[in-house]
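hi support,

uploading two proteins for the ticket. first:
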Amino acid sequence: MLTAFTIKIYQLGAALLVLAVDWIAAQDQDLVRSCAAYKKSVFEETSEFSLLYPNAPIIYKTRDTCTSYTPLIIGGGPAVPKEFPHAARLGNRNEDNEINWFCGGTLISNQHVLTAAHCLFTENGAVNVVRLGELEFDNDKDDADPEDFGVTNATVHPGYAHPIIYNDIALLRLSRPVTLNEV
């Protein structure tokens, strides 16, 4: 398929800047449409005006329509040991061997964890440890058998631009393959 572009060339000292202007504008429009759709799904916009005072300013209000946190899915129950072996806890292990846990992910192969790209852009440091098999974070007597894995590589979606939420996805490569046990 052939696509026509308007090319603009700018002289910048000894360098030339060549832009496919129509393509860039189309990308911007797609982003604007995506942002508008997301905004409509999360926020409710209303306007208030006066019938008695026609020259009164119109007041625009935006209300966050996201529901509050619910600890369980409707009709759900607490997880049991070894029920979700693919659930991953992400953290940073410092030089004192202390781990600061701050994000989550999902094991998608024997050596890869899918997570949100924003997890890799925090003040907590780099994600360098993944824990699998955890049930209760603060309980060592819950019949779970968690195992920690190092992280050798983190790949962020090329379209992700922190802190914007679009393309907020990343892939972590574990330092060794995961062996899933029989339950």
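and the second one:
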Amino acid sequence: MLEKETIDEKAAGAVPEIADSENEAIMDASKTFLITVIGAVLFCLAALFIILRTRMG
């Protein structure tokens, strides 16, 4: 139990606190999510256009 406490104390102090607005991983994830959402919307619009074009003649 004593060994686990020392490991936890070392791990807790090793990571510096970074604000979310400065965290590069969060910024990259939000950019990736935005690109994914835009791609999904464009894909749905293209599929809708193709479906309507083939149904309407």
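thanks. also noticed: The chain has a mean pLDDT of 84.
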